[in-house]
Amino acid sequence: MQIQPGDVIGSYQIYSEIGRGGRTVVYQVSQRTTGRWVALKVLRKQDPRALEEFRREAEFTANLGHGSVRQVYDAGQTPDGYPFLAMQFVDTSLRQLLRARQEQGRTFSQQEVARTLGPVADVLDHVHGMGIVHLDIKPENIFIFRDGQVVLGDFGSARQIGGATHEGTPRYLSPEQAAGDRLVSAQSDVYSLAVVAYEMLTGQLPFGGELDIVLVRQHLEATPRPLRQANPHLPRELEKVIGNALSKDPRQRPASARAFVERVRTARSRAVSGRRKGLGRGLLIPAIVVPLVLFLGIALIALPILKTTPTPTNTPTATSLPTSTTRPTLTPSPAPTQTLAPTATPRPTSTPKPPPPTQPPTSASSARGRYAAIEHPATATLHRFTSAFPANETAPRSPAQGDTYVQ
Ligand SMILES: Nc1ncnc2c1ncn2[C@@H]1O[C@H](COP(=O)(O)OP(=O)(O)OP(=O)(O)O)[C@@H](O)[C@H]1O
Ligand SMILES: [Mg+2]
Prior knowledge:
By secondary structure, the protein is of the alpha+beta class. Helices cover 48% and strands 12% of the residues.
C-alpha cells in the first residue's frame, strides 16, 4: 500500500499521516465535496472481511446517538482493495497529551482526570445500558478537540456484554479479557478506564514490563503497584478508589464508569473532611476533661476557703468560679457540630456531576429510556456486528506502533 500526500482516494485527498495502529495507518485528509478535515483509517492489509467489520463499525457508531462519540462518516476501500474508515478528525488524542505532560515532567491532576474521563464514562454508561462493552479503552482512543471537548472512538473491539474475548490492548486489558474465557461486562471497561486514570495521575502504568505476554499475565495475576508508590502526593483515598477499580474480581469494581470517575473526582475532599472529622472527635475529649479537672481543682482550693470564711459576701466568688469553668465546657460543644457539618451537608450536593462544558446534548439516561421501549438501530447493528465474532477468536494485539511508553 503506497499512499502519499496529495493522493486522492474517492472523495478524500491525503494531507499527512497522523499515526499508526497495530493494523492501520491513519491519515489527515480533506473531503473534496465538503472541504472539511477528515481522518482516514486505512487497513494495511487487503482484507474483504475487515471491510465488512469497518462497515459494521461505521453503521454502529453512526447510530449510537451520543455527542461524546467520535463520529464515523463512511467505510469503503481504496482502488487497490485496502479497507478504510472515514471519521471525524480530532485535533489530539489523550496519548499525545500524556506524552506532552511526560516531557514536561508533569502528571494530570485529579480534577483534570475527572474532566477528561467524565465524557468517556458517560459514553460507556450509555453503551453498557444497551448491553454493549467497548473493550479497547486506552489513551489512543480518547480524543480531545481544541476547545476541550472529549470524544471516545474505536468501537472495533466492541462486544455484547456476557461474551468472552481476548480482544483488547495488553496494557489496558481487563483480567477477563486477559483470561479470554471469562465473561466481559461493563466492569471490564471500568478496569481499563482505571488503568488510564492511573497513567494520567502518575505517568506510569500499574504494571511494569513491555512484553505483551508479561502484561497479560500481570493483569490476570499480579497486584498492581499502589498508586501512591508511583505518585506519593496523591490522597490515600484515591489510591483505594483506583485499587478497587483494578480488582481482579469484576464484582469488586465500581458499578458504573460514571461512579468510578465521581469517586476519582471527590476522593481528596472526602479525605480532608475525614481528617476534620477525626480532629473534631479528638478535640471533644480534651474539651470535656480539661474544664472538669479545672473545676475540681478550683473546687478543692475554694472549699477550705469557704469553710474558713463562712461570710455570705464570699459566696458569689465561689459560685462564679464554676460558671467560669463551665464556659469552656460549653464553648467547644458547637465545635464538633461545625467540623462534622461539612462531611454531612455539602458532600451529597457537591457530588453530582457538574455538566462539563463539553457535555453532549444527548443524555445517556434519556437514551437508555428510549432503548427500553424500542430496540435502538445501533443495538440491532451490533447484534449483527458481534455475531460475526466468535468468542476467543483473537489473540491480544500488539501495542500500536509508535506507542512506546517510557516509564
Ligand atoms: N479521528 C482521528 N483523528 C485524529 N487522530 C486519530 C483519529 N483516529 C485515530 N487517530 C490516531 O491515529 C493513531 C492510530 O489509530 P488507530 O485507531 O488506527 O490505532 P490505535 O488505536 O493506536 O491502536 P489499535 O491498532 O489497537 O486500534 C492513534 O494515535 C490515534 O490516536
Ligand atoms: Mg484506535
